[in-house]
Every structure is written in C-alpha cells, then in structure tokens.
C-alpha cells in the first residue's frame, strides 16, 4: 500500500452557527442602547436650523434726531412755495453727510454731483430722480404737488435710515 492509502479521510469543519455570538458581540449588544440614549441626549446641544430673521438695526441718536427734524419740517402743501422747504431738506442732508463722511468734502458738492453722492451712499432712496431737490431752491416760485412732496419726503427718510 501506498502512503496515500493510509491517510485518514478528510474531516470537514463543524458548521459555524449564528447563535451564540462571540463574547465581543454581547458587549456591543449591551453598548448599542447606551450609545443611542447618549445621542438622543446630545440632540439638544445641536443648534436648530431656524430661518434667520433680519431685523432693522436700531438707529443711532443722530439719525433719530434727523428723522424727527424731517417730520417737524412744514411741508409746502396746497401750492405754497417749496423753495424754503427744499433748502431745509438740503441743509439736513448736508449736515448728516458732514457728520458721517467728514473727509469726503460732500458739503461742498452741488447739483448732479450732490445727488450722485447721495445715491452712492444709499441707492435705495433714489434721490437722483429728484433734481428739484437741488434746483427748486433757486427757482422763484417752485411749487410741488402733494404726491411729489410725499415722494421726496419718503426718499429723504429712506436715505436717512439706510445710508452707509
């Protein structure tokens, strides 16, 4: 006989069962609920993704005083001459610019350059379309209708609130 015939038959390994798991799996089975509870407790430290509501910033005292002065100015309704009112508006805007932009020499500007300077600081006000603001003070009988007075007042109010 050959040596190969003397060999024992191959023994197949025992089938690997699903149960009982190895000792490390028991430990994981115990830790899994603890990890879940810990994550559930940590959820309160994660910030909620709420939409950010951007409120308007409170106005500084200079702007509040300027808005109060604008509200106190007598408006030239019913066909009254508007020259003095337009000069007061220009004076108010020039004082604000002198305070907020001291090195820009803005108080020396006039005409379209003045309106362009104002619009560069606050495009939302749209003061360049109010050429009457700079020209009306020099016209002898400048009169504005009520809609123009309200629009110009609103534009100046917007500029005071929102200029950079």
Structure description:
This protein has helices at residues 23-42, 61-72, 83-100, 111-121, 132-135, 146-162. α2 runs antiparallel to α6 (146-162). It is rod-shaped. It has a domain at 79-162. The protein has 6 helices and no strands. The chain has 164 residues and is mainly alpha-helical. The model has no long low-confidence stretch (mean pLDDT 83).
Q: What attributes characterize this protein structure?
A:
164 residues, mainly alpha, 6 helices, rod-shaped
* Count of helical stretches: 6
The geometry reads as rod-shaped
Measure the end-to-end span. Answer: 106 Å
- Say how many strands there are: 0
Share of residues in strands: under 5%
The ordered string of helix (H) and strand (E) elements is: HHHHHH
The mean pLDDT is 83
Unreliable stretches covering 5 or more consecutive residues? none
Helix content: 40-55%
- Class based on secondary structure composition and strand pairing: mainly alpha
Q: What can be said about the biggest beta sheet?
A: none
Estimated radius of gyration: 40 Å
What is the element layout, followed by pairings?
Elements: H1 23-42, H2 61-72, H3 83-100, H4 111-121, H5 132-135, H6 146-162
Helix pairs in contact: 2-6
Quick structural overview:
The chain has 164 residues and is mainly α.
């Amino acid at each position: 006989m050959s040596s190969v015939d003397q060999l024992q038959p191959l023994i197949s390994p025992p089938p690997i069962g699903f149960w009982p798991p190895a000792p490390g799996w028991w430990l994981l089975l115990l830790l899994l609920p603890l990890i879940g509870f810990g994550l559930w407790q940590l959820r309160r430290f994660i910030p909620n993704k709420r939409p950010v509501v951007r409120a308007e910033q409170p106005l500084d005292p200079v702007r509040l005083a300027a808005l109060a002065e604008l509200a106190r100015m007598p408006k030239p309704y019913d066909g009254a001459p508007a020259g003095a009112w337009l000069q007061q508006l220009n004076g108010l805007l020039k004082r604000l610019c002198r305070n907020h932009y001291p090195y820009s020499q803005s108080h020396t500007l006039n005409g379209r350059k003045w309106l362009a300077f104002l619009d560069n600081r606050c495009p939302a006000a749209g003061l360049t379309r109010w050429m009457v603001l700079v020209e009306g003070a020099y016209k002898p009988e400048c009169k504005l209708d009520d809609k123009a007075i309200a629009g110009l007042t609103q534009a100046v109010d917007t500029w005071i609130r929102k200029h950079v």
